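Q: Sequence in, structure out?
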Amino acid sequence: MMDNQKNPAPSQRARAQAVVAQQQRRAKRTKALTIGIAAAAVLAIAVPTAVVIGNQAAERDALAAAAARPIDGVQTFEIASSNHTEAPVSYPQSPGVGGDHFPGWANCGVYDQEVVETHAVHSLEHGAVWISYNEDASAEDVAALKELVGERTYLLLSPFAAQEEPIKLSAWGSQLAVDSPTDPRVETFIQKYRQGPQTPEPGAACTGGIDG
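A: Exactly. Output:
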């Protein structure tokens, strides 16, 4: 009896081997299935992400290409000087796009009240784009402009009653008037002039200055 327990009959060994082989095949199938599910999950995430990234890159490239070309309606001005002064300054544009200005700059961001023009012009010197609007801009337009600016840096949004057009975008030496925030030139102007090559002091701060 002890010999039979130590040395199972061939049929018993065969059954045991078959059970082991079946377990191994089941483990391989489970592993393959797990790998397949994981790969499908990664692919399901990666493909939409790649599409989104690709679309964003294409949109940036399109904006950059548009910004590289002249923007219809943009006026450019020769800026004679850019001295700091405490005296009032009168600008030939409305609002001003460059020239002498107050030593402090206006902090970039969204304002519901008018900012001091000579502070804002200093912000333009630092590479900001100033978006201004008058009372002809609707509440919906103003809301859209606020959403457009959001938390983006080197953008300044405020009312400016003295301007004739509903909405204006100003950069150092350049200005564009539009009737609607949905005008495609708005984003193109921002792309081209925010910290653009016209900036006298690129990289200078648009925070840490004057709130309005």
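Confidence is low (pLDDT under 50) at residues 1-5.
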